[in-house]
Write a sequence for this structure.
Protein backbone atom coordinates (compact mmCIF):
# COMPACT_ATOMS: atom_id res chain seq x y z
CA UNK A 1 0.00 0.00 0.00
CA UNK A 2 1.33 3.45 -0.92
CA UNK A 3 2.18 5.29 2.26
CA UNK A 4 4.80 7.26 4.21
CA UNK A 5 6.71 5.43 6.90
CA UNK A 6 8.70 6.86 9.76
CA UNK A 7 10.99 5.05 12.18
CA UNK A 8 11.38 4.99 15.04
CA UNK A 9 7.94 6.09 16.23
CA UNK A 10 9.27 6.93 19.70
CA UNK A 11 12.83 7.68 20.78
CA UNK A 12 14.30 8.65 24.15
CA UNK A 13 17.98 9.55 24.13
CA UNK A 14 20.56 11.41 26.16
CA UNK A 15 22.01 14.82 25.42
CA UNK A 16 24.87 14.86 22.92
CA UNK A 17 23.86 11.72 21.05
CA UNK A 18 23.75 11.59 17.27
CA UNK A 19 20.45 10.33 15.87
CA UNK A 20 18.86 9.73 12.50
CA UNK A 21 15.13 9.78 11.96
CA UNK A 22 14.09 7.70 8.99
CA UNK A 23 11.40 8.56 6.44
CA UNK A 24 10.45 6.50 3.43
CA UNK A 25 7.56 6.84 1.02
CA UNK A 26 6.19 4.40 -1.50
CA UNK A 27 3.96 6.98 -3.18
CA UNK A 28 6.40 7.84 -5.98
CA UNK A 29 6.45 11.48 -4.89
CA UNK A 30 9.33 13.76 -5.80
CA UNK A 31 8.91 16.36 -3.06
CA UNK A 32 9.53 15.59 0.59
CA UNK A 33 9.47 17.65 3.78
CA UNK A 34 10.36 17.56 7.47
CA UNK A 35 8.25 19.44 10.01
CA UNK A 36 8.71 19.91 13.73
CA UNK A 37 5.51 20.03 15.75
CA UNK A 38 4.81 20.13 19.46
CA UNK A 39 1.60 18.11 20.01
CA UNK A 40 -1.40 19.92 18.57
CA UNK A 41 0.60 23.03 17.85
CA UNK A 42 1.69 24.74 14.65
CA UNK A 43 3.83 23.03 12.02
CA UNK A 44 7.37 24.35 11.54
CA UNK A 45 9.14 23.50 8.28
CA UNK A 46 12.75 22.55 8.93
CA UNK A 47 13.88 20.95 5.63
CA UNK A 48 12.52 20.13 2.21
CA UNK A 49 13.60 18.48 -1.02
CA UNK A 50 12.31 18.75 -4.57
CA UNK A 51 14.09 15.61 -5.71
CA UNK A 52 17.25 13.53 -5.57
CA UNK A 53 20.31 15.57 -4.52
CA UNK A 54 18.09 18.60 -3.78
CA UNK A 55 17.76 19.80 -0.17
CA UNK A 56 16.84 23.17 1.31
CA UNK A 57 16.43 24.58 4.81
CA UNK A 58 13.04 25.73 5.95
CA UNK A 59 11.91 28.55 8.18
CA UNK A 60 12.83 27.00 11.51
CA UNK A 61 16.45 27.23 12.50
CA UNK A 62 17.64 23.75 13.26
CA UNK A 63 20.87 21.95 13.99
CA UNK A 64 19.75 19.08 11.81
CA UNK A 65 20.78 17.95 8.34
CA UNK A 66 19.05 15.91 5.65
CA UNK A 67 20.03 13.96 2.57
CA UNK A 68 18.14 12.79 -0.51
CA UNK A 69 20.12 10.12 -2.27
CA UNK A 70 17.09 8.09 -3.30
CA UNK A 71 13.67 9.39 -4.30
CA UNK A 72 11.85 7.38 -1.65
CA UNK A 73 14.18 8.07 1.29
CA UNK A 74 14.65 11.36 3.21
CA UNK A 75 16.45 10.86 6.55
CA UNK A 76 16.92 13.62 9.14
CA UNK A 77 20.07 13.64 11.29
CA UNK A 78 20.75 15.45 14.55
CA UNK A 79 24.51 15.51 15.14
CA UNK A 80 24.22 16.36 18.84
CA UNK A 81 20.79 16.14 20.41
CA UNK A 82 19.73 18.65 23.07
CA UNK A 83 16.66 18.86 25.32
CA UNK A 84 15.39 21.73 23.12
CA UNK A 85 15.05 19.15 20.30
CA UNK A 86 12.34 17.34 22.24
CA UNK A 87 9.32 17.43 19.94
CA UNK A 88 7.44 15.47 17.29
CA UNK A 89 8.97 15.25 13.83
CA UNK A 90 6.63 14.77 10.86
CA UNK A 91 7.77 13.73 7.41
CA UNK A 92 5.58 14.61 4.41
CA UNK A 93 5.58 14.20 0.66
CA UNK A 94 3.88 15.77 -2.33
CA UNK A 95 3.44 14.52 -5.86
CA UNK A 96 3.88 16.32 -9.15
CA UNK A 97 1.47 17.13 -11.95
CA UNK A 98 -0.17 20.12 -10.29
CA UNK A 99 -1.29 18.29 -7.18
CA UNK A 100 -0.45 20.29 -4.07
CA UNK A 101 -1.77 17.97 -1.38
CA UNK A 102 0.76 16.92 1.23
CA UNK A 103 0.70 13.44 2.70
CA UNK A 104 2.11 13.09 6.20
CA UNK A 105 3.85 10.24 7.93
CA UNK A 106 2.84 9.07 11.42
CA UNK A 107 5.63 11.05 13.10
CA UNK A 108 8.54 10.35 15.44
CA UNK A 109 8.15 11.48 19.03
CA UNK A 110 11.64 12.46 20.24
CA UNK A 111 12.57 13.04 23.87
CA UNK A 112 16.07 14.24 24.72
CA UNK A 113 17.00 13.92 28.38
CA UNK B 1 6.52 35.86 1.83
CA UNK B 2 3.08 34.47 2.48
CA UNK B 3 1.48 34.93 5.90
CA UNK B 4 -1.58 32.93 7.00
CA UNK B 5 -3.59 33.95 10.05
CA UNK B 6 -6.08 31.44 11.51
CA UNK B 7 -8.88 32.10 14.02
CA UNK B 8 -10.02 31.10 16.51
CA UNK B 9 -7.25 29.13 18.19
CA UNK B 10 -9.82 27.17 20.19
CA UNK B 11 -13.47 26.51 19.36
CA UNK B 12 -15.88 24.69 21.64
CA UNK B 13 -19.33 23.67 20.37
CA UNK B 14 -22.18 21.39 21.32
CA UNK B 15 -22.84 18.31 19.23
CA UNK B 16 -25.11 19.22 16.35
CA UNK B 17 -24.00 22.84 16.20
CA UNK B 18 -22.08 24.33 13.29
CA UNK B 19 -18.42 25.33 13.48
CA UNK B 20 -16.61 27.92 11.40
CA UNK B 21 -12.85 28.43 11.22
CA UNK B 22 -11.45 31.40 9.34
CA UNK B 23 -8.10 32.05 7.67
CA UNK B 24 -6.66 35.08 5.94
CA UNK B 25 -3.66 35.14 3.64
CA UNK B 26 -1.42 37.92 2.40
CA UNK B 27 -0.10 36.85 -1.02
CA UNK B 28 -2.65 37.50 -3.74
CA UNK B 29 -0.79 34.99 -5.97
CA UNK B 30 -1.76 32.09 -3.70
CA UNK B 31 -4.15 29.79 -5.53
CA UNK B 32 -4.43 26.57 -3.52
CA UNK B 33 -6.01 26.39 -0.06
CA UNK B 34 -6.13 23.03 1.72
CA UNK B 35 -7.54 22.16 5.13
CA UNK B 36 -5.97 19.42 7.23
CA UNK B 37 -7.44 17.64 10.24
CA UNK B 38 -5.16 16.23 12.91
CA UNK B 39 -6.74 14.00 15.52
CA UNK B 40 -4.98 13.52 18.83
CA UNK B 41 -1.83 11.48 18.33
CA UNK B 42 -2.42 11.11 14.60
CA UNK B 43 -0.93 12.59 11.45
CA UNK B 44 -2.52 15.60 9.66
CA UNK B 45 -4.80 14.51 6.81
CA UNK B 46 -6.37 16.54 4.04
CA UNK B 47 -10.13 16.88 4.45
CA UNK B 48 -10.98 19.41 1.77
CA UNK B 49 -9.24 21.89 -0.50
CA UNK B 50 -10.17 24.69 -2.85
CA UNK B 51 -8.46 26.39 -5.75
CA UNK B 52 -8.70 30.06 -6.58
CA UNK B 53 -10.97 29.55 -9.58
CA UNK B 54 -13.74 28.27 -7.29
CA UNK B 55 -15.67 30.20 -4.64
CA UNK B 56 -17.10 27.30 -2.67
CA UNK B 57 -16.67 23.56 -2.36
CA UNK B 58 -18.70 21.13 -0.33
CA UNK B 59 -18.20 17.53 0.79
CA UNK B 60 -21.03 16.17 2.92
CA UNK B 61 -20.92 18.06 6.24
CA UNK B 62 -17.85 20.14 5.46
CA UNK B 63 -17.51 23.08 3.09
CA UNK B 64 -14.88 25.65 2.28
CA UNK B 65 -15.51 29.14 0.95
CA UNK B 66 -12.97 31.46 -0.63
CA UNK B 67 -13.10 35.23 -1.03
CA UNK B 68 -10.17 36.20 -3.24
CA UNK B 69 -10.87 39.91 -3.02
CA UNK B 70 -10.71 39.91 0.76
CA UNK B 71 -8.05 37.18 0.78
CA UNK B 72 -9.79 34.96 3.24
CA UNK B 73 -11.16 31.43 3.27
CA UNK B 74 -13.23 29.54 5.79
CA UNK B 75 -14.00 25.98 6.83
CA UNK B 76 -17.61 25.22 7.72
CA UNK B 77 -18.63 22.06 9.55
CA UNK B 78 -22.35 21.44 9.99
CA UNK B 79 -24.05 19.03 12.41
CA UNK B 80 -20.83 18.56 14.36
CA UNK B 81 -20.14 15.20 15.98
CA UNK B 82 -17.68 14.24 18.75
CA UNK B 83 -15.42 12.62 16.14
CA UNK B 84 -14.96 16.06 14.57
CA UNK B 85 -12.90 17.00 17.64
CA UNK B 86 -9.37 17.63 16.38
CA UNK B 87 -6.91 20.35 15.45
CA UNK B 88 -7.62 21.88 12.04
CA UNK B 89 -4.94 23.61 9.97
CA UNK B 90 -5.49 25.85 6.97
CA UNK B 91 -2.75 26.48 4.43
CA UNK B 92 -2.05 28.53 1.33
CA UNK B 93 0.32 28.00 -1.57
CA UNK B 94 0.80 29.20 -5.12
CA UNK B 95 1.68 27.60 -8.41
CA UNK B 96 5.41 27.01 -8.80
CA UNK B 97 5.93 27.00 -5.04
CA UNK B 98 5.46 23.69 -3.33
CA UNK B 99 5.95 25.09 0.14
CA UNK B 100 2.56 25.64 1.76
CA UNK B 101 2.23 28.24 4.51
CA UNK B 102 0.20 26.88 7.39
CA UNK B 103 -2.02 28.65 9.88
CA UNK B 104 -1.32 28.05 13.56
CA UNK B 105 -4.22 25.64 13.96
CA UNK B 106 -7.64 25.60 15.60
CA UNK B 107 -8.48 23.12 18.32
CA UNK B 108 -12.13 22.13 17.82
CA UNK B 109 -13.87 20.49 20.76
CA UNK B 110 -17.32 19.01 20.20
CA UNK B 111 -19.17 18.27 23.43
CA UNK B 112 -21.65 15.37 23.35
Amino acid sequence: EADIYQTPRYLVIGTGKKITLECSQTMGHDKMYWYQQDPGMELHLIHYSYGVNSTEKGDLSSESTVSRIRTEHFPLTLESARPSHTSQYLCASMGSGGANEQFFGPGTRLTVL
Amino acid sequence: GENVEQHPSTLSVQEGDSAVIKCTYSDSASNYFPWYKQELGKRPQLIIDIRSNVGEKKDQRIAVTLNKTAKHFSLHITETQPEDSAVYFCAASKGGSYIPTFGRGTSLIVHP
In short: The longest strand of chain B covers residues 19-25.
